[in-house]
Request: fold
Amino acid sequence: MDFISSLVSRIESLFRTPWGVCGVLAVYLLIPILGQRIDPGDYTPVLGYSSEAQSSRNTSAVSRLFGEFRTSMSDIMFLKTERYIHSGVGYQAHITEKDLTGEDDGTDSGAGSETLIRTPSDDWRGFIGDLEREIKPWSSPEFHMTHQKGVELLPWFRLMTLVNPHRIRGYRIGAFLLMSSGEEDGLMKAREFIEEGIKNNPKNHELQFMMVRTYQHEISQNRAKIEGWTDEDETPLLRTALKHAQKAIEFGAVVRPEAGWKGKGRPNEMEDSFAGCLHYEIFFLRRLGLDETALEKAIHSKRSYGTDPIIESEIQELREKLGKDI
Amino acid sequence: MESAAIQPRPVEIEDQSGPPMLVARVVWLEIRRKEEYLALFILMGLYLMIAIGARLVGDNREESVALMLNMGLFLSSALAAILTLLTAAGLIPSEIENRTLYPLLAKPVYRRDVILGKFFATVCAGLFVFGVFTLLTLLTWVQMFPMPGQDLLMFIQASVLQVIAISLLASIALLMSLKIPKAVTILAVSLLYFAGDPIFNIVRSMTRDLFFGKGIDGLLSCIPHFSKLTLLQRFTDGAPALGLGEFLGLCLYGMIPTLVFLGLASHLFERREI
Reply:
């Protein structure tokens, strides 16, 4: 205590002279430096983030009660966006006999179907029910659903990544919506969005994978749209995409558990992104005419991260092509 | 009617504690007397009631326990922060308002000793709440603590950093309460503690492309981010422990501004006309 007391006393005396103030400011400058270099919030959660864990947790009354408190602003946005995109209305699934027998000719209305928010005829809550139907995404099941474009959701994704720059799913899905929006500059905006995500999460493999997907999308788009588009025109795009795929493998390999990410939901997304980049790396190398390297990479992937039918078939094809023994 | 309320222990003449500790002891007694702080215990009690209920009915699934453990630790740290903030922001203004500061300053004590004493008492109160509530949470889930995947070293690191966060919170609140009304101090510091990061992130993103964006980013970086010091969520999420360099860096990240703000508060208080 005496030590702290004398230390504070000395610091206090520093404020009495301009040089002292300068000294204090100089020491204080360590704060922004340390703050920029250390980001303890940038980590991949391990426990309880799979869909199975969430489902299991949601069956616990106690957890549900407390889980409400835990929901952060960013989570609220994500849940709201999910609800909105998956048909806009919280319909409960309803399958009729006609659906099963294939006799549904599309003329049958959904009248009488149950919805999460009750229909007026089935609602005993009076004006409270009316209020809920007005302010929540609800439409009558008697009418067909009007599907809307995903781009309407983009402000939500923008906001959720502003609030939490480590929300990888926000960047992923937002970039996907931009990329597939059909807008002229959609691809460019998607790339900018992912670049922002990479800037905030420089070691994340999923964002690198999304970047690879934008290049793949661009290549497919150019092939379809640009007349006379040749394989040579693709080379620069392929090279850039390859770099991102290799970065994704490098970053993913550091954090990936030995047996891979297991479980539905987030673990599955992370594993899929990693595996996707392993595949893309081989594809891109092949398209660049580097078959030998592609075969080496495929064998290395199999040995280091396990195999799957795509890697097996690539190895087989490449060996046949290069005339190597299987 | 005589109540069995806690009576302050008279300070013994032979007591060799320095002036800051004597001031701290008086503030500590004052904190113990305030009934509103019992509300924090009631809140924690509610959590414990539900948590113990969950244990008794046998809800021991890993996912549920991880969430409940997270909630318990979050409540412990949040309630400790609230107590620290409410106490630190109100100490000096209420002493000035009640005119109890004058007899205190008439004693042979430096003004900085008053600030330090109040700081120590506030931090002790915060740590007491954090320690007791964390202990109760851990005792509730003791058979499953730490859960598979959770790193005990991370828990220790998070606890140490939480202590530093509480000290930083106390120093900021004390400093601001010297210049700003109590209510504004409480509002501003609670925003900084509980929602500082999202607010800074939004401001940074909005100004990134402006020509003064870098300046704003630099300015915001100078404000301590409590999210870097409150890492109990990182422990319950099963993230690995911090490296030694990172941990020590974060300790400095919290301690440097704490000492600077305390020094500045002492300096401002020395010069203040009362």
User: Anything to note?
Assistant: Chain B touches chain A through 64 residues (CB under 8 Å). Chain B has ten helices and no strands.
